Amino acid sequence: MEVAFTPTLSSQEKTQNDLFVQEYNRTLNDGKKPKQELGRDDFLKILITQLSYQDPSSPMEDKQFIAQMAQFSTLEQMTAMAQDFSKLTSMLMGNEASTALGKNVQITEGERDINGVVQAVTKGGAPQVLVNGRFYAWEQVTKVFAD
Questions:
Q1: How would residue 66 be classed by pLDDT, with cut points 50, 70 and 90?
Q2: Does residue 19 fall inside a structural domain?
Q3: Is residue 98 part of a domain?
Q4: In this structure, is residue 135 part of a structural domain?
Q5: 110 or 61: whose pLDDT is higher?
Q6: Which DSSP string corresponds to the chain?
């Protein structure tokens, strides 16, 4: 006696298969979230794809191409400016923290306030101050008192 092969899944098998696929997709994403905006690499990919698939008998007009290149140039300049602003902010925070050296400060940590003299300051994008033998983030300093 021959057993007939049925190529369709039962509803239970289909549900199990769907759950397996969803779980597998979650492991592939590994907590990554989709981007909501395009960056310069995405812009370049789109431009290259557009140039690759354009009709040779009707190439992109010069004005369109120049406009897209101008957009790309603007995007590059904005990216560079954002990086420069980030560096400037870091430098300003470090400078501000170093001016508190030797001065009395008030630090807020959770619900309590800590008072003491700034004994040392670390450099970098997130400067820290040494008060009463412990380092605190510069953002935690709420008051700097004059001598």
A1: confident
A2: no
A3: yes
A4: yes
A5: 110
A6: -PPPP--SPPHHHHHHHHHHHHHHHHHHHTT----SS--HHHHHHHHHHHHHTS-TTSPPPHHHHHHHHHHHHHHHHHHHHHHHHHHHHHHHHHHHHHHTTTSEEEEEETTEEEEEEEEEE--SSS-EEEETTEEEEGGGEEEE---
- Domain containing 118: what range? 39-53+60-147
CATH number of the domain residue 123 falls in: 2.30.30
First and final CA of the chain: distance in angstroms? 101
Q: Are strands 112-121 and 104-109 parallel, antiparallel or unpaired?
A: antiparallel
Predicted TM-score (pTM) of this structure: 0.46
Name the pLDDT band for 99 (thresholds 50, 70, 90). Answer: confident
Average pLDDT (41-63) is: 74
Mean pLDDT, residues 115-134: 89
